[in-house]
Design goal:
Helix content: 10-25%
Number of helices: 3
Number of strands: 8
Shape: globular
Order of helices and strands: HEHEEEEEEHE
Amino acid sequence: MGMNDTVADMLTRIRNANKERIKTTDVICSKLNKELARILQQEGFIEKVELVKDKKGFDFIRIYLKYRDAKTRVITGVQRISRPGCRVYVGSAAIPKVLNGYGVAVLSTHKGLQTDKSARSLNVGGEHICNIW
């Protein structure tokens, strides 16, 4: 059976693995998930990203989560904003700040997936995918 919302599945897997302090998690491979993982790595929320194949030959993204020490998580919250049933679009002037700039909002713009800071600097708006802090 196909999956309708691979981004929500990815964020849920990251949230669950982070809650249990698991070092790695595997998510379904898609262009959007690859770019979202790249942004998470670039912003310092995860250690590294690998493309792996399972026994049947399907591609997966292996995400290595980052922790400061045994008790402290780097990711404290993940929130999906735009969903397939209810899309949320923001203009360049209305891009939200997550926790007064401590978190990151991810936007899907015509220039690709962007963080809130880079979208503000490029003066572009788009679909508000998720917030991470």
